[in-house]
Fold this protein.
Amino acid sequence: MDYKVVENYYVGDNIYYIKIEGKFNAKMGQFYMLRAWDNFPLLSRPISIFEVEENYISFLYKVVGKGTEIISKLREYDYIKLEGPYGNGFEKVKGKIALVGGGVGIAPLYMVAKELENCDAYLGFNEEEIMLDIFSKECENVFTTKGSTFITDILDVEKYDYIMVCGPTPMMKKILDMANETRTRVQVSLENHMACGVGACLVCTCKTHSGNKKTCKDGPVFWGEDVIL
Amino acid sequence: MADLKVNLCGFDLKNPIIMASGTFGFGKEYGEIYDVSLLGGISSKGLTFDKRQGNDGLRVYETPSGMMNSVGLENPGVKGFIENELKDFSKIDTCRIVNLGGNCEDDYIEGAKLLSDEDFDIIELNISCPNVKYGGMAFGIKSEVARDIVRSVREVCKKTLIVKLSPNAEDIVEMAKVCEEEGADGVSLVNTFKAMAIDIKNKKPVFDNITAGLSGPAIKPIALRMVYEVSKSVNIPVVGMGGIMCAEDVIEFIMAGATCVQIGTANFVDPKIGEKIIEDLKYYMNQNGINSLDEIRGII
């Protein structure tokens, strides 16, 4: 379906923010397939939901190719197609929670911060720190790193009952290794190239201890102990 | 009012739109988005006798007007399909086609035997998958190799049998003729084109398998030509496919001689493309005074 763009701007660290008008009912950690063109590029772009408000939905996205470049050029009153929401989303948990995001991986964590209690945010960036004020409103503490200091360096896994992670694979892998030594349970939001978005084409398969799973349909969120990175 | 019905190998299809194998799962995923029973048919995810994990590494890559995939026939195996998927698949009120691949001749034979008594309509024999190391397309290159497979499967297969051909065949017309001679009830063409992409930054192929299958609008003119040539050369129905994105593309394939068509990559552009193409096709036919697809089939 076509929806109207309300805002679309660069926020830093090669990440953009787009706000779209409409009524949406989605769970934290789900994604939509976005496209702002007719036929080409052929595939829509799977983007995690950043926030759902009463009359709006917003996304953070990184410009990496032709599709996201086209989206980055949309202006107010332009139209964009959204299909979804797809995927399972984060499981609701109670306890002390660390939200760990790397780069654009911070996107799906904001809805978690808004919905769940007792969250600390750990946000890692390459060059610029972004969205700190927004996360600060919803989280008890916000920790950040940039450049060659990794967010995993300042995370004390043992302090938390749960960790929700989204970001580069080495970062997620490191956290799974760290959590393996403690009682902390981890939910990871995986990113993968997708085509259909609904679980039919199997191009986004990921490996788990119970066999191949579809990142789009069985995920993108998996329990850390299940997934093989 | 335009009548979209077509007859495929004795089966009355509501319309000529079949969803292509590998792009539509077993129908249930898209069934959550629209009523897939309105489709003319569904071809299942390609099955092999044994369960397959599929290929490692990147599995999809976009190209101008197309996409490449290297899924490698990940599937639950024939037994897994019968145990876990067939019940729902059989309930879909449309022509139900099961796509059957294999690693070796015995795989095809045993798979066809097991499937023969199950509740669905047609077996589509896949001798054309370019993404598996053994079997797959290897059976779809040389006509005489294909002859052996089709003959062996025909002997044990009680179902209506369609053979899915590869555009990489040495001679696709000869290939289709061989299938007809060996008792195939129809042919479907074309599967993806064997293709390649290189990651120049990292100086390596994009896909672990080096090559992958190219589909989408980029291949449509070549697929159309092949459907045209094959349609003129055999007396069994031809199911056309290759980059069909809209109702006008469907009309082209029917005019080239196809009985009906399969839609693949377009499902990824618009998840409701099947529903849309059927409506657009009806509109096109009404606007152009075409009462039945029989009026335009093979007119080129």
